[in-house]
Amino acid sequence: MSVDLSHPLLAGVPATSPDLVGPQPASVVRELRDDDGTWWQVYEWIAPEQSPFPGERSLVFDAGLVLRRLKAFPASWPTLADGELLALM
Fold first, then answer.
1. Cα distances (Å, whole numbers) of residue 44 to 3, 5, 77
2. On the CB side of 12, how many CA atoms lie within 13 Å of its CA?
3. Domain that holds residue 80
């Protein structure tokens, strides 16, 4: 299934963003590789006002076709070693 990101409500939204509802920009983005060779971008995401849970924070692991989102995560996640961060998934 393809999503038309040119629609006014979705303009500028990355195709891999959770829920395709305009995410807040990430202040820290980590890129790391797991033992299987998959590259992940890890960033904090804040649900927008239009979402069912406005302001809720999540830690997102984004591998392009796969997204994993954690609701409970340590505030120190940006300083964790790669292995420690991957272990949160």
1. 23, 22, 9
2. 6
3. 18-87
| Radius of gyration of the chain from its Cα atoms, rounded to whole angstroms | 14
- Residue 37 in any domain: the answer is yes
| pLDDT tens-digit series, residues 20-66 | 445 555 578 999 999 999 999 999 998 888 888 888 999 999 999 99
Give how far Cα 33 sits from Cα of 7, 19, 23, 39, 61, Å: 33, 24, 24, 4, 11
Measure the CA–CA gap between 9 and 73, rounded to whole angstroms.
30
- State the total domains in the chain: 1
Query: What own/partner pairs with CB < 8 Å and gap ≥ 24 does 22-27 have?
Result: 22/48, 22/50, 23/47, 23/48, 24/48
Residue 61: CB atoms within 10 A of its CB come to 21
Residue 4 lies in a domain: no
Contact present, 73 and 88 (Cβ < 8 Å): yes
